[in-house]
Amino acid sequence: MNVVLAFDPLYYRTRIGVLRESGQVLHEVTTEEDALEAGLSIVGGTPSVVALPKGPPADMYPWHPRNALAKLASGYCRETGIPCIVAGLGRDGSAVLPPNARLSGFPGYERKPTFYEIPEGDACEAAARELGVPLERSRIVVTYMGDEVSVSARVGGLVVDSTDPAACEGPFGLTSCGTLPATAFVSYAASALQTGVTVEELVKRVKSSGSISYAYAGDASGALDAMAYQIAKEVGRQVAALDGRLDCVVLCGPGGSIRPLALGVEERVKKWARVLRFREDLVMPRLFLEGTKALSKK
After folding, report:
1. How would you class 202 by CB atoms within 10 Å of its CB: exposed for 0-12, middle for 13-18, buried for 19 or more?
2. Shared-domain flag, residues 271 and 287
3. What are the two backbone dihedrals, phi and then psi, of residue 26, each rounded to the nearest 5 degrees?
4. Is the model's pLDDT at 211 over the cut of 70?
5. Which of 70, 100, 144, 244 is geometrically suited to a Cys-Cys bond with 150, CB 3.0 to 4.6 A?
6. What is the DSSP string of 223-255?
7. What are phi and psi of 42, to 5 degrees?
8. Strand pairing partners for 117?
9. Range of 15's domain?
10. Domain match, 171 and 73 both
11. What does 261-293 look like in DSSP terms, one character per residue?
12. In terms of domains, do 97 and 228 share one?
């Protein structure tokens, strides 16, 4: 019997999905647990295929949860001889920012789009269908709200500008800091390094120990409103990248199910275009689909 084992790695947990002919099982483990071992335990043996979503460039962000788990999973798949599917490679590879969007203002560093192609790409396609607009003629701003926040402007389904959440560019998320005041953070980092804090620990602090879940846990309501405010500002920047001409603004990701957050964004951006919110999980269905397609080709 074919079994698809899928992983959706986040900063503070990993979602695990198992698809059999008899149905599917969803499970979650924390970062302290071995997600790969947990998934294999649920399967109860060797799966037919392993599927994960593509992360940001692994050479730049090896510590990103998507890249870290993909490395472990690919090693396991090589040993067992089963396929390892990294979904999202096609559309993600087509993202090339125009020259004026690449300049960061800091010589030697070029802005890069490290958006969440899964589920952003699927949400963009679904929005075009709901609006009755051909994808190739669509102009849509897509926002992924999760541990990190990614906001991208898309023309014809392809990204023409995007934040770089892996590098902490853009609004803050549920655990990850967003754009930080450069000189203030340099001073903080220098002081922390002098006390023995490692670079790896600094990265962990800004990616998984900040924002609503930790830094502002005592004022969750105020933090959600601030997060919505920052996301709405970034949506405005992407509206400008589309010259103010867009069909809709799309909200997706875990934050789409947090009502105060989603409504806080919607109320601020609906002046520009219709807002569509996808509360449902778009990641696991895509991973199950890609895994099943890979098995059908064997």
Report:
1. middle
2. no
3. -115, 140
4. no
5. 144
6. HHHHHHHHHHHHHHHHHHHTTT--SEEEEESGG
7. -65, -40
8. none
9. 4-89+283-296
10. no
11. HHHHHHHHHTTTSEEEE--S--HHHHHHHHHHH
12. yes
Q: Are residues 156 and 122 in the same domain?
A: yes
Same domain, 54 and 133: no
Predicted local distance difference test score (pLDDT) of residue 187: 96
Question: For 264, phi and psi rounded to 5 degrees?
Answer: -65, -35
Residue 181: DSSP 8-state: -
Whichever domain contains 17, its CATH number is 3.30.420.40
* b/e per residue 218-235 (b: at least 16 CB within 10 A): eeeeebbebbbebbbebb
pLDDT, residue 90, reads 47
Q: What pLDDT, in 10s, does the model give residues 42-81? A: 999 999 999 999 988 888 889 999 999 999 999 999 999 9
| H-state helical runs in the chain | 35-43, 65-80, 89-93, 99-102, 117-131, 182-194, 199-208, 220-241, 259-269, 283-296
Count of structural domains, the chain: 2
Distance, CA of 292 to CA of 240 (rounded, Å)? 40
pTM of the model: 0.91
Q: Are residues 182 and 75 in the same domain?
A: no
Q: Which residue has the tokens 């902490």?
A: 168
In terms of domains, do 160 and 70 share one? no
Between 205 and 20, the more confident residue is 20
Please state, in angstroms and rounded to a whole number, the distance separating the CA atoms of residues 159 and 168. 19
User: Are the CB atoms for 43 and 49 separated by under 8 Å?
Assistant: no
The pair of structure tokens assigned to 204 is: 């962990």
Q: For residue 277, list its beta bridge partners.
A: 251
Q: Which residues are paired to 9 by β-bridges?
A: 14
Residues 122 and 267 in one domain: yes
Structure token pair of residue 280 = 């449902």
Q: How many angstroms separate the CA atoms of 250 and 151, rounded?
A: 10
Neighbours of 254 (CB within 10 A): 18
